[in-house]
Amino acid sequence: MTRKRSSGSQVVATVSRYLCLTLLLVFTLGPLVQTVVISFVSTLPRENVGRGAWTLLNYRHIFADPDLVASLGNSLIYVSLNVIVTLLVALPAAYALSRHSFVGDRHLLLLLLTFRITPPVVLSLPVFLLFAQLNLLNSPVGIALIHCLFNVPIAIWILSSFITAIPRAFDETAFLDGHSTAGFFVKFLMPAIAPGIGVTCFFCFIFSWVEVVFARILTSTGGKPITMAIQSLFGFTTDIGLVMAMTVLSLVPGVVLIFFVRNHVSRGFEIRA
């Protein structure tokens, strides 16, 4: 009797587990599937294509519109610049904080993290005035630089923890072998903390790709990223199919990035855990 109750409880637990997993998948993947499906549907009547018909016109319209194509290029440019500049600044800073102790080093790291959680809208006016004087408005370079201000602190925090996990003898051995500081960084340190670099790139990309506050403020007439291009598609008569098609294209770079750094990201989270 006890065995029957135990087996019955196990069946209920297994069914409940799979039911919860199914509900989670529906909740998370449902909007994505709906977005992809609607992107292939004509939501406004067009010539030779009725409303509700399956079509590729939404994607054709995107690639035929210079502004929409330019927004994709602008986003890729400023996200790439942001990731590269952030790594160039954060890696040496993280190494210094990890390998050298000085008065207030922990407080400095905490101060950097505090700046990271500052609401972007607080800095919008001074940033706009400064970038206007530097002629960086309506340019992907301006957005990349301001994003670095928010990504560098979190990048330093992530990379410093990975570097701290590496023994100091690792550095000393490389320097005794005659390698320069630059050579040590490229040949030894970066491969050793590749999971940390993958996690850093992932967070930098996510923040820059979806950020809209500075994108709206710094690109009033030109250099608009994909987030602002999608917003511009909404109006009195909104072509939802076109919006969904643009949304699907905006997901492609993120999916590609996750595919290439997935192993580093998973290892990075495991190491940090």
Task: Supply the key terms.
273 residues, mainly alpha, MetI-like fold, 12 helices, 77% helix, globular
Uncertain residue ranges: none
Largest sheet: none
- CATH topology: the name is MetI-like fold
Number-wise, the strands total 0
Q: End-to-end span in angstroms?
A: 43 Å
Q: Helix count?
A: 12
CATH superfamily: MetI-like
Give the oligomer, counting copies of the same chain as homo and different chains as hetero. Answer: single chain
Strand fraction: under 5%
* Backbone structural class: mainly alpha
Share in helix: over 70%
CATH class: Mainly Alpha
Q: What average pLDDT do the residues reach?
A: 83
CATH structural architecture = Orthogonal Bundle
Rg for CA atoms: 24 Å
Would you kindly provide a written description of the structure presented here, covering whatever features stand out?
The chain is mainly α and 273 residues long. It has twelve helices and no strands. The protein has helices at residues 2-39, 57-64, 66-99, 105-116, 124-133, 140-164, 168-176, 181-192, 194-210, 213-218, 226-232, 240-272. The model has no long low-confidence stretch (mean pLDDT 83).
Nutshell version of this structure?
By secondary structure, the chain is an all-alpha fold. The protein is built from twelve helices and no strands.
